[in-house]
Amino acid sequence: MTKFLLVVIPAILVVAISILSVQNAAPISLQFLAFRSVALPFGLWLGFGLAAGMVGTASLLTLFPGRRS
Question: Looking at the whole model, is its pTM more than 0.70?
Answer without folding.
Answer: no
